[in-house]
Design brief:
Blueprint lengths: L6 H9 L14 H20 L11 H15 L1 H7 L22 H7 L18 H11 L2 E2 L3 H17 L4 E3 L11 E4 L2 E8 L3 E2 L5 E2 L2 E5 L3 E3 L3 H10 L4 E3 L19 E9 L4 H5 L4 E7 L3 H4 L14 E10 L3 H12 L8 E2 L5 E2 L4 E3 L2 H13 L5 E4 L4 E4 L7
Antiparallel strand pairs: 1-8, 2-9, 3-4, 3-9, 4-7, 5-6, 7-8, 10-11, 10-12, 11-15, 13-14, 16-17
Helix pairs in contact: 2-3
Amino acid sequence: MAKEFTDEDDALLDALGVEVEVEKAPTRTPREERIIAGFEDIQRFFEEHGRPPQHGEDKDIFERLYAVRLDRLRHLEECRVLLDPLDHQGLLGAQESGFVEEEMSDEALLDALAIDETSSDITDLRHVRSSAEKRAAEEIANRTKCEDFDQFKPLFEQVQKQLDTGVRQTRPFELKAEIRIGAWFIVGGQKAYVAEMDEIFTNEQGRTDARLRVIFDNGTESNMLMRSLQRALNKDDAGRRITDPSAGPLFAGDAEADDMASGTIYVLRSKSDHPLIRDNREIVHKIGVTNMAVEQRIAGAHLQPTFLMAGVDVVATYTLFNINRTKFEKLIHRIFGTAQLEIEIQDRFGNPVIPREWFLVPLSVIDEAVEKIRDGSITNYIYDPKQARLIKTSGQQAV
């Protein structure tokens, strides 16, 4: 019996970049599969450009190929019957252009379009590229010269020095959560830096994605999707992520049972109307760590006691690698323990709950603490609620 995936399984597979496909018994012939694959190329063109492919000397060679293919599919009755259930864009019923490539001979046009004139229909094409090949070609084609590369070149040089001295390391790429602003990777034999990331959105398949600005060490850049970079890293046997600089005992050393391959420290502000929260909203913060997308972690916050049974705003995130969750939580509680929020709320069943990880601490102090976690100096500091700042301890504290 085939295994049925739960929502939790699907979320984990999504984080790992595994596309779940339900195995179906083959019901089509290879020829029918080729017809459908060819039509899907045309559909993708329509989705990208908002119109069917057109003929014309001024058109891209692949657009002209798709236009010829679409004309042929419209004329072949068996193709129309096969494709009609898939034609949600109405391409087969659209009015034909009637355009004829008169300035090229039939033989020259067929050769330019890579169509074998001896074939019986449009499905028999020479050099038909796989979806993976087309995606790879699109990524390469979308790379452009980075006009402000002078600003990034010193960063690439610094990262290389840090790799040479062991301050940074390369490790196998594992999770989509590792793709964040400021993250470094090696893909296609080149170092790549995620310089910018737009708002995260949900694509048509229900997966989270975002548009990135990725700078490469050869002076080019690409405006690619996060999932495109993820696929490229997964496909590349030599694809690696470059770790952040070693930040002391919390994030270095041998892996332990509770280690995460990567993680995001998140800081939240509650929308609760509880008087204590309402009166101190600007300094009441939840500090946590997750190895999934923060948006996914806080989904349904109003139903969870740990989020005070209310919606939340994400006010800051920080990406770190090889985080040990238990050590991190112990460290945060040691630093901000004197400012931990003491509040009791009821869960949705009426049971009393005392949420943890909420602190009466200004955001600027949390930001300072994370920076000290990064450089390893946090072990010498603790939070003084009277002064509302970090102060140095008399002796070194254990993490």
